[in-house]
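I hope you will forgive my troubling you with a question about protein structure. I should value your view on which stretches of the chain appear to form regular backbone elements. Here, with my thanks, is the record as I have it:
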Amino acid sequence: MTIPADVRAMAVVVVRDGQLPAGAAETAAEAGGAVLVVGSGTGKAADGLDAASRIWLLEELCAGPATLAGMLASALADVDMILLPASPDGRDLAPRLAAILGRPLLAGAVRCAPGEVELARLDDRLSVRVGVDGPVLVTLLPRRRGTPEPADGSKSPQVNVLSLAPVRDTSRDAESVEVLQPEPGVVDLAEARRIVGGGAGLVPAGADGAAVMRLLAGVGAALGASAGATRVVTDAGWMGYDRQIGTTGVSVNPELYIAFGISGAAQHIGGLGAPDHVVSVNTDPSCPMTAMADLGMVADAPAVLTELAKRLGVTDPSGADDAE
């Protein structure tokens, strides 16, 4: 089975043990529903691609990025636009595949259309539109185009198994020694499954805001969650801008979001996506964040965080205990 000649755009999604990377569904939708799933557990992963209408599976358990690129090049040579999610595996595969195919790589895209690709630059503060008049390869940033519409529910996607000849020369390939899960404190917020967020209401008057946010990050790590913040917090220098959640920051879509002292301004909620579960800790029972929460705790956020840190055995660098 090969890729039909009528497929002009295709998403290539690399999976591990059947787990789809962040941005897989968006990339499938941007490619018009045509998806090549490659890696381990491809059949399981394909079940989660609601936006896909035509799926090809290539089961390769231990192939490195150079090997995959060599295998895929011949099958994808006639596809005008090849899209990959900008996941770690996608970013590894994309430049190698582009080099073999001899076509330009447009990395960090937020939108693809016939004849034009829109790229995000300078931490999403600059949008660059690039005209495309030939074959191209694109990596798509996750969670930039919203939740994709599912394919026609009345029709099951066409699923085909792709068989490609292995590449003989793999001497220059990367070898996978061990796969380590990222630590919550350094994982990209866009890919975090759990997030604890801090707002201005988490920092008492006169307190060291940076120390409070370090405590928040410590509590988050104990819960297996990454730490994020509102724009007020990052503008104050208490947390880096790469941790800012919102329309002018990072767009996220976690399974769990715990908001400490966040009122829920439109700019912040606009980048929050649709978390499966939201917990809000705020003294205002009528604030937007508490209103949208599954569990709203009407309480003092700094006090709750300090108590939670004690119970989890997290050291408090803010000196809140002494202040009490």
Observations:
- Residues 320-324 have pLDDT under 50 and may be disordered.
- The chain is about 25% helix and 25% strand.
